[in-house]
Amino acid sequence: MKNLKCIIETRMGSKRLPGKSMKFIHEKYRLIDFVIQNALNSKYLNKKNIFILTSSKKNNLSLVKYLARYKIKIICGSELNVISRYKKFDDGKNYSILRLTGDNPLIDPLIIDKFIKKFFSIKIDYLTTRGMCHSKNWNVKSDYPKGISLEIFSSRKLFFDRKKFTISNYEFPTWFFFNKKSNARVKKFASFGNIKKYLGNRSFTVDTIKDLNNIKKFIKKNNCIPGRNNFINFCNTH
User: Could you tell me if 181 and 132 are in contact, meaning their C-beta atoms sit under 8 angstroms apart?
Assistant: First the structure.
């Protein structure tokens, strides 16, 4: 896909689980390895159009050093003002941004590919798998379990409305899309296949030590390896 860029947000300063990006969730692989390798195994993504957005605080130095092995461009910026990191990424051109976060290790390549293809096949500005239950203006429930989270949007819409960001929403780059603070055309990405069987029954995100232990058990039990369609395979065989 032309004019497509993937951004992976990750940092070491989580309050609930400090350093989670570098936590091992497999005997050989860390949390961030799953996210990056799953993205790299999408047929639409590669080392040239994937970017890591992280914080410039010193506690992220070990993460930045570790990520050098992937030879992916890393952009460092404010710890809390995430939108400022996006501003560094802005080159004045219009392109589509696929947003991934470093705490969702089981976003597998097949879901990414179907999601990207859907966005480019319809005329919209923002597509998401997420349900924004905390927004009064987006009463749409997700068709995916927590942690199977994807967002893609037009950079033109993001940077055109960036003056609307305030300190209350600096951490959420897509805040005004699901709060409908702009005239962007937004749409939910419906699930497919057997995914709905696990809606609400499991969480595949890592926010706490309990989440970390649960994802470790899931990965070990299901022989998950980064870069494979682990979540889809699980849904199809259970």
Answer: no
Burial class (CB in 10 A: 0-12, 13-18, 19+), 89: middle
Cβ atoms < 10 Å from Cβ of 80: 12
Domains of the chain in sequence order:
4-237 (3.90.550.10)
Instruction: Give, to the nearest 10 degrees, the angle between helix 31-40 and helix 109-121.
Output: 50
Cα–Cα distance between 37 and 40 in angstroms, integer? 5
Pairing relationship of beta strands 50-55 and 73-77 according to DSSP bridges: parallel
At 134 the pLDDT is 59
If you average pLDDT over residues 90-94, what whole number do you get? Answer: 77
What residue ranges in 65-216 does DSSP mark as E strands? 73-77, 96-101, 126-128, 151-154, 186-188
Which sign, positive or negative, has the C-alpha torsion 64, 70, 71, 72? negative
**Quick one: what percent of the chain has pLDDT higher than 70?**
89
Strands 126-128 vs 50-55: parallel, antiparallel or unpaired: unpaired
CA 208 and chain centroid, separation: 17
- Output the pTM of the full model: 0.92
Q: At residue 170, what is the residue type?
A: Y
